[in-house]
Amino acid sequence: MSRLFSLLGCWLCMAAAQAQVVRLPDTACAELGAQGDGFEESAPSWPSDGVGGVVGSGGGVVAVPGFESNPAYAHREYFWFVPALSTPTAMPVVVLLHGTAGSPANARNEARTIRDLWIGAAQRHGFAVVSPVAGGSHGSWIAPSTPGAAPTDYDVIAAVRSDLESHFNIERARRYLWGFPLADTSRLISCSIRCIRAAGAGKSRRWQ
C-alpha cells in the first residue's frame, strides 16, 4: 500500500510539473501590454464589432496582407463556427490548431474535423471557434525559423483572426489558442500569445 501511495505521489508531482504558467514579455503582447496578465478577468472588454457574418458553421479564405502575390499565402482556407446568442454580445473565440496531417488534403480534413468536434461546447458556452488549415507540405504548420520571420503560418492565423473579427462581434480580450502538443504547433503558440499551459492531450493558451 505504501508503494501505491508513493507511486501516486510521484504521478501527482509529475502532473503538477507539467502545468505551469508561462508569461511572455509585454513586447510580445503589444495590443494590451502591461494591462493584461493573461487572465481574462483582468482584461477590459475589447469587442471587434464585426458585422455581416451568418451564425452557424462555415468556411472562408484569406490572403496574408503584403503577400497576396505569394501562392502559398494568397488563398489560405479556414473553417469556423459561431453560435447564435440569446443576448447579442461580444463572444470569446478559440483558435484550433490541428496536428500534423501527412498531406495538404488531410490537413483540410483535420481542420474541419477539429472544428466539428468543438461545435457542441461552443453552442453550450457561447463562444466562437475557428480552425485554420496548415500550409506545410506534410500537412504541418510553418513556424517562424527566427523571431519576426515572415511569412509563416503565424501570419495566416493572424489574417484568419482578423477576417473572423470583421464579420462577427468577437471579444478580442478573450482570444484563446488550442492545439496538439507537437513541436511545430508549440512554436506557433509561443510566438503569438501570453498563456496558461495546461497538461493533457492538447494545449490551451490565452492569445492577446
Description:
With 208 residues, this protein is of the alpha/beta class. The protein has one domain. Helix content is 31%, strand content 23%. The protein has helices at residues 2-18, 104-125, 153-167, 183-192; strands spanning 20-22, 56-62, 76-82, 91-97, 128-132, 170-179, 195-197, 203-207. The strands form two sheets. It has a six-stranded mixed β-sheet with strand order 2-3-5-4-6-8, with helices on both faces. It has a two-stranded antiparallel sheet with strand order 1-7. Residues 1-22, 28-40 and 189-208 have low confidence and may be disordered.
Helix-strand pattern, N to C?
A: HEEEEHEHEHEE
Structural class: alpha/beta
* Radius of gyration of CA atoms, rounded to a whole number: 18 Å
Tally of separate helices: 4
The unreliable regions are: 1-22, 28-40, 189-208
Q: If you average the pLDDT, what whole number results?
A: 76
From the spread of the alpha carbons, the general shape counts as globular
Please give the domain count: 1
Largest sheet: 6 strands, mixed
End-to-end Cα distance: 47 Å
Helix content range of the residues, please? 25-40%
Side by side, the strands of the main sheet go 2-3-5-4-6-8
DSSP strand tally: 8
How much of the sequence is in beta strands?
15-25%
Describe the secondary structure blueprint for this structure.
Blueprint: H1 2-18, E1 20-22, E2 56-62, E3 76-82, E4 91-97, H2 104-125, E5 128-132, H3 153-167, E6 170-179, H4 183-192, E7 195-197, E8 203-207
Parallel strand pairs: 4-5, 4-6
Antiparallel strand pairs: 1-7, 2-3, 3-5, 6-8
